[in-house]
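BUG-480 | component: ligand-complex export | severity: low

The export step for magnesium ion jobs runs without errors, but we want the raw record kept on the ticket for reference. Input record follows.
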Amino acid sequence: MKSYTVAELLNSETLLQEVTVKGWVRTFRANRFIALNDGSTINNIQCVVDFENTNEDTLKRIGTGASLAIKGELIESQGKGQKVEIKVQEVTILGDADPEEVHKTVMQPRKHSLEFLREQAHLRTRTNTFSAVMRLRSSLSFAIHKYFNDNGFYYMHAPIVTGSDAEGAGEMFRVTTLDPKNPPLDEDGNVDYSQDFFGKETNLTVSGQLEAETYAMSLGKVYTFGPTFRAENSNTSRHLAEFWMIEPEVAFMDLAGNMDLAEDFMKSVLSYVLEKNPDDLAFLENRLIQEDKTKPQAERNEMTLTEKLRFVIDNNFKRVSYTEAIDILRNSKPNKKKKFKYLINEWGADLQSEHERFLVEKHFKCPVILFDYPANIKAFYMRLNEDEKTVRAMDILFPGIGEIVGGSQREERLDVLKEKMAALDIPEEELWWYLELRKYGTAVHSGFGLGFERLVMFVTGMSNIRDVIPYPRTPQNAEF
Ligand code: 4AD
Ligand code: MG
C-alpha cells in the first residue's frame, strides 16, 4: 500500500483504493470520525472508522495527540465539509497520548492563549495557528533564496563569531572559554583576553554586513541569511535577542538602486507566498477577523490579511526624506496635542516606533522609505552627504510593524571613513581589514538588512515576534 501525505490525499484528482497515511489525531468524534493531520497542510483528513471491525482497545486509544497509521480507501465524502475522506480498514496506534497529560498541554482540543502556548514551544506547532505560521516562515525563506538566486546574487555565509561590533551599538553577547570565576588578568587587573580561545575579545555577530561588503567587492552581488544576536534589553513585541537577518550587498549600486532593490524584493517574496500558501493565509486571515470582533471598532484592522499583502504588492512605497518626515511629525495632531510619548521638537531627533507608525498608518497609509537621516543617529559606515549633516541611510517602515528594513549606501572614501571612525572612537586596528576595501579598488556600494521575523509577523498578522520563531530567545527566557 502506498503512503501518502494528507495534502496529497486532499488534492488527489482521483479516488484511491488502497492508501496509507500517518499523522496525529486532532479530534475523534462519536467513536467514528478521526480528524488526522500530518503537517503537510492546515487541513485535516477525515478518517471514518468502522467500529464493528476495530477492536475495543484500539478504539479507546484513538485520542487527541496520538500518532496513528491508517490504511483504507480514499472515497468521496459521505458527509458535508470535505470532498474526500478515508474509509478506514485498519488503524495502528504508533504513539499513545495519555488523556490525563493531554489535558495539561496544547493537545487539549480547545482555544489556548498565545502566552500559554509559548510555555509549550515544543508542542505549539500541533496547533493550527502555529503550524500555519511555521509553514509560511519556511515558504518565505525559500522565496528569499529564490529571489536572490534568480537575480544573480551569491549566498554568502557570514561568520557568527566575530571580533567587531558592526553596528557600534555595543549590544553584544561575549563568546569566551575563560573560566568566569577565575579569568586570567593582565598587569592592570583587567581580564586578559589574549589568553582566550581566539586570542582576543570575540562576540556573537550583530550583523553580517561588514563581512558581506568584502565579498560584494569581489563577487558583485551577495546576500547573507543567518542568525544575528543582540543583547538589547528591550522586552518589546518586536525585538528578539536571536533573530534572522537577510543582508544583500551590491557593488556599484547607490542609495536609489538600494531602494529599488528592496522594494522589488519585498514585493516578490510577498507575491510568492500569496500564490503558494493560500490555505495557511486564509486560516490566519480568518483568525484575525475573529480576533477583531472582540475589539472596539477603532482598533480593528481596516484591511484583511490578504488585502494588506496585495496592497503592498500593488502600490509604490512612498519615499520621504528624514527632513520632510520631521516637518510632518512636528505639525501632526498627536505632536501638537502631546499625545506622542516622545515629542518631536527639532531636526535631529531620533524617530521612535510611535512616529514611524504614525507616518505609515495615519499619514501616508502605505509602506514608506525614509532616507537621508542625520549622521549622528546612524551607524559609522553610512555615506556622508554633501551637506555633511546627513547620511545616505534608508529605513523601510511597514504598517503594524514599523521598521522592517534598515540599510544604506556605504562610505567608500577612505579619508572620510577614517575621520568618522576617529570621531566615534572606533579603533582602526579593529577594522583594518574593512578599511583595506577602500584602498584597493574602492567603489560605490550599498545594501540593507531585513529582519526576517518582522517579515513573518507582517505576513501572518501575528502581533508578537515571539510567536513567529520556533524557539524565541528574549531576556530571561531560553528554556528550550
Ligand atoms: O537596522 P539594523 O540594525 O541594520 C543593520 O544591522 C545593518 N547592518 C543592515 C545592513 O545594512 N546590511 O537591522 C536591520 C533589521 C531591522 O530593520 C529590523 O527589521 C531587524 O533587522 N532587527 C531586529 N529584529 C528582531 N529583533 C531585534 N532585536 C532586531 N534588531 C533589528
Ligand atoms: Mg535600524
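Assignee comment: Attached the raw record above. The chain has two domains: 3-102, 128-171+206-467.
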